[in-house]
Design a protein that fits this description.
InterPro entries: Frizzled/SFRP (IPR015526), Frizzled_dom (IPR020067), Frizzled_dom_sf (IPR036790), Netrin_domain (IPR001134), TIMP-like_OB-fold (IPR008993). The protein is α+β, with helices and mostly antiparallel strands and 264 residues long. It has 2 domains: 124 residues, Frizzled cysteine-rich domain; 112 residues, no CATH class. Helices cover 34% and strands 17% of the residues. A hairpin with a 2-residue loop joins strand 6 and strand 7. Helix 1 packs across helix 5 and helix 6 crosses helix 9.
Length: 264
């Protein structure tokens, strides 16, 4: 049984909502063990060398399993959950034992919580009842400015610029679990009112958790200067810089901004 990438997303989404995978891919006497080839980049060198076919997604042949698994590599690149690869390989390339081993409920729920926002970027609309954060479908990353002027010109074109500290609430928590330090420095207010700056930024942390995750790059806390615009009453971050001693261009720009004259 073949699935398009969109059908596969929908199918996996359905299974994750249920919270378990035991309803799928029962053991068959016709199943067989085969080596995981290098061409199956998703699961090659995962920690075991043989997989069982048909897999838990009913892929009958290795060629089919490889083709369908390839579409999931962009999801892993977004690093939505540290165990995402293990989880996906338990479906695409189940370890070759005397029976299928299904992911546990807690892992299913953790992957759903962290990766569903990113999966939405690939075309699968998740039910509103899940109340999951919305991911940024663009790859927002930390930037390395080439000059102080570049940063100042960025401040000129954006609606706001703020220096903030972001921390992960729990080292083992999901991608959405970040919080904003109560102290922040507003470099440029723009349309942001003073009383709404902190709650709007916290809202951004909750709604655009994938972007925040990319900015932090696996760290548990850090200080950043972010800038962007207001869209429909919500913050959209376009650029982010890490605040540290080595980034002298950023520190100089922050000091000069108050007296900097933007070009009209």
């Amino acid at each position: 049984m073949k699935h398009t990438s969109q059908q596969l997303l929908a199918l996996l989404g359905y299974l994750l909502v249920l919270g378990f995978l035991g309803v799928f891919g029962s053991y068959r006497s016709s199943s067989r063990c085969t080596h995981i080839p290098k061409s199956m980049a998703l699961c090659y060198d995962i920690g075991y060398t043989e997989m069982r076919l048909p897999n838990l997604l009913d892929h009958e042949t290795m060629a089919e399993a490889i083709q369908q698994s390839t579409s999931w590599l962009p999801l892993l690149a977004r690093e939505c959950h540290p165990d995402a690869r293990i989880f996906l390989c338990s479906l695409f390339a189940p370890i070759c034992l005397d029976r299928h081993i299904y992911p546990c409920r807690s892992l299913c729920e953790a992957i759903r919580s962290s990766c569903a926002p990113v999966m939405a970027c690939y075309g699968y609309p998740w039910p509103e009842i899940l109340n999951l954060p919305r991911a940024s479908c663009r790859d927002c990353e930390l930037e390395e400015p080439s000059s102080t002027k570049e940063i100042l010109e960025n401040f000129c074109t954006c609606d706001f610029a703020v220096k903030i500290r972001i921390s992960r609430k729990n080292k083992t928590s999901t991608i959405a679990d970040f919080e904003l330090d109560s102290k922040l420095e507003v470099l440029k207010h723009g349309p942001l009112l003073k009383t709404e700056t902190h709650p709007k930024l916290q809202q951004w942390l909750n709604l655009d958790a994938t972007c925040v995750h990319n900015i932090m790059r696996g760290t548990n806390s850090g200080v950043y200067v972010i800038s962007g615009e207001m869209q429909n009453g919500k913050i959209v971050v376009h650029r982010a810089y890490a605040w540290h001693k080595k980034n002298r261009n950023l520190q100089i720009a922050a000091r000069r901004w108050k007296h900097y004259k933007c070009r009209v």
